[in-house]
């Protein structure tokens, strides 16, 4: 995504729905996102399945995972699944990846030691790149090995030319800690943290940039995104109650002052000021995750129609 403009994405909360996605595609929203665990504590979907639904039920927007817990997956299998989805969607896929670890039982159940999740994520990202590069690929790593294999994405019916994008879909790294930031700088096409204040985001940008300089990497074209829980209502008190109730059940009880730093809530005017702080910290693609149990489309609509027009790039990059 270009770094000289501000764009908006939206998370399909709680589950992707055809009518909700159709309504969002009529708004000035450029992407839709969903993730999912393999063994979540409740009846919620899995990341690849959700990507497939969103790809099938949209026509215009970019479709992304926020996030795919990559170490839970056999990388050759998921490389094929994602390449096929990218090809069939017309190159609209973005793969947000994370190392996970909050649900240890998932790792135990699939036979992956939770302590290996970081290096497994790194190696899996390398494998995805190799298999998406086109032509035969060989890999000999700590966890996986194959020789002279070639991945062939499916071609959409009636399409001409090669199937899929050479190099595959972008890999955007999520997380909140320094190892994830370094992973983004070394292996990612972007950085997409969550539950961060604007100040913490600005510090994370510095960490990513410093790591990139250390390894001699040019970050031109790198995507600076933020997955941002929020609620926007005409009634600001209702929005604040949304966030307190939603994040309290999802992430445990958090003080109101902490929620205010990491999950903007209020009227469009109030939230625009909070969003602008993230833009000033370096965010260029804001992914709105409605922290609400109902009327999530209203949150996205107000963000797109009344908050986004109020945002502006810092003077030094205009």
Architecture overview:
Pfam families: Bac_luciferase. This protein is an alpha/beta fold and about 325 residues long. It has a single domain, classed as Alpha-Beta Barrel (TIM Barrel), CATH 3.20.20.30. Helix content is about 40%, strand content about 20%. It has helices spanning about 20-25, 45-55, 75-90, 105-110, 115-130, 180-185, 200-215, 235-250, 255-260, 270-280, 295-305, and strands at about 5-10, 30-35, 60-70, 95-100, 135-140, 145-150, 170-175, 190, 225-230, 265, 285-290. The strands form 2 sheets. Strands 1-2-3-4-7-8-9-11 form an 8-stranded parallel β-barrel, surrounded by 7 helices. A two-stranded antiparallel sheet has the order 5-6. Helix 2 (about 45-55) links the parallel strand 2 (about 30-35) and strand 3. The protein is globular, with a radius of gyration of 19 Å.
């Amino acid at each position: 995504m270009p770094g000289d403009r501000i764009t908006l994405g939206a998370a399909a909360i709680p589950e992707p729905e055809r009518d909700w996605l159709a309504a969002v595609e009529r708004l000035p929203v450029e992407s839709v996102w969903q993730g999912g665990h393999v063994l979540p504590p409740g009846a919620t979907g899995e990341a690849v399945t959700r990507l497939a639904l969103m790809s099938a039920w949209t026509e215009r927007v970019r479709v992304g995972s926020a996030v795919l817990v990559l170490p839970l997956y056999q990388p050759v299998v998921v490389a094929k699944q994602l390449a096929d989805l990218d090809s069939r969607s017309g190159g609209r896929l973005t793969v947000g990846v994370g190392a996970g670890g909050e649900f240890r039982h998932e790792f135990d159940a699939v036979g992956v030691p939770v302590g290996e999740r970081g290096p497994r994520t790194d190696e899996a990202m390398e494998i995805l790149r190799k298999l998406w590069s086109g032509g035969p690929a060989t890999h000999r790593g700590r966890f996986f090995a194959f020789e002279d294999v070639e991945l062939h994405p499916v071609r959409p019916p009636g399409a001409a030319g090669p199937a899929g994008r050479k190099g595959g879909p972008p890999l955007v790294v999520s997380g909140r800690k320094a190892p994830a930031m370094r992973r983004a700088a070394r292996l990612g096409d972007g950085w997409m943290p969550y539950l961060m204040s604007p100040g913490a985001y600005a510090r994370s940008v510095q960490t990513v940039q410093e790591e990139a300089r250390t390894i001699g990497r040019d970050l031109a074209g790198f995507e600076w995104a933020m997955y941002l829980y929020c609620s926007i209502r005409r009634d600001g008190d209702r929005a604040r109650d949304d966030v307190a109730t939603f994040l309290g059940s999802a992430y445990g009880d958090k003080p109101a002052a902490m929620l205010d730093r990491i999950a903007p809530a209020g009227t469009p005017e109030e939230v625009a000021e909070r969003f602008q702080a993230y833009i000033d910290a370096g965010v260029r693609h804001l992914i709105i995750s409605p922290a609400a149990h109902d009327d999530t489309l209203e949150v996205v609509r107000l963000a797109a129609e009344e908050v986004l027009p109020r945002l502006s790039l810092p003077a030094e990059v205009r």
